[in-house]
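Hi all, posting the design record for the shared folder.

TITLE: backbone redesign
STEP: 1 of 1
STRUCTURE INPUT:
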């Protein structure tokens, strides 16, 4: 597994630095054409980093590791990020994580089956106009309170390999999307002998799909059968 992680990191580094990858995922023809402090690879690395610190503190710490010590503002980062197509991270996950981890089929299984959990979750997003236009908004408030208004809301759905800790597929969708419909969309990434685990409410609504799962070799598994 550690060797696979090394391969994954090397492949990600090569992909991020490739001109073809940059051309596929820049939002405008003129984006990332000039040498700037936040050029394409640097922006990708910053966005892949996890951290609980403020954005500006993370930017300051990152700059200290570079030869050019010029500061980067939150505004500059936001503008650079707007030039990047989110689908870059989908390809990065597929080619550098999923493909690498599964290429030799030497993975953890349960009785020979890959254990896959599929679940959806509602996420509150920043209420900016562009985000509201993309995902929609939900009203909040009560006749018993003075607080009312709206907030931006999205429905996230993820297909996760529980034993190997791999996100096989994920999506962020309009809040009105139906969780069951999103769960069904993940099935194109299922393989033979997958143990598919859903929460009970989704299982009840997916009864009609059991036969199609069995035809593909996948196993449909109810929580109360554990």
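Okay, here is what came back for every position:
SEQUENCE:
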């Amino acid at each position: 597994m550690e060797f696979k992680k090394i391969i994954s990191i090397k492949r990600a580094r090569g992909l991020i630095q490739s001109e073809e990858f940059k051309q596929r995922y820049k939002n405008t023809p003129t984006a990332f054409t000039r040498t700037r402090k936040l050029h394409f690879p640097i922006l990708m690395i910053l966005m892949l980093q996890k951290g609980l610190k403020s954005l500006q503190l993370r930017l300051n710490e990152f700059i200290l590791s570079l030869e050019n010590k010029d500061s980067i503002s939150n505004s500059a980062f936001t503008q650079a990020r707007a030039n990047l197509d989110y689908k870059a991270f989908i390809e990065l996950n597929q080619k550098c994580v999923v493909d690498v981890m599964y290429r030799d089929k030497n993975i953890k299984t349960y009785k020979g089956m890959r254990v896959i959990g599929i679940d959806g979750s509602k996420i509150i997003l920043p209420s900016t106009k562009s985000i509201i236009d993309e995902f929609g908004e939900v009203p909040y408030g009560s006749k018993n309170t003075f607080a009312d208004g709206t907030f931006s809301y999205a429905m996230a759905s993820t297909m996760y390999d529980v034993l190997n800790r791999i996100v096989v597929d994920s999506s962020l969708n309009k809040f009105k999307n139906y969780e069951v419909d999103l769960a069904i969309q993940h099935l194109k990434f299922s393989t033979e002998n997958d143990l598919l685990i859903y929460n009970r409410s989704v299982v009840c609504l997916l009864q009609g799909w059991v036969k199609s799962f069995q035809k593909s070799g996948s196993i449909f598994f109810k929580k109360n059968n554990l």
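COMMENT: The first helix runs from residue 2 to 17.
Let me know if anyone wants the other runs.
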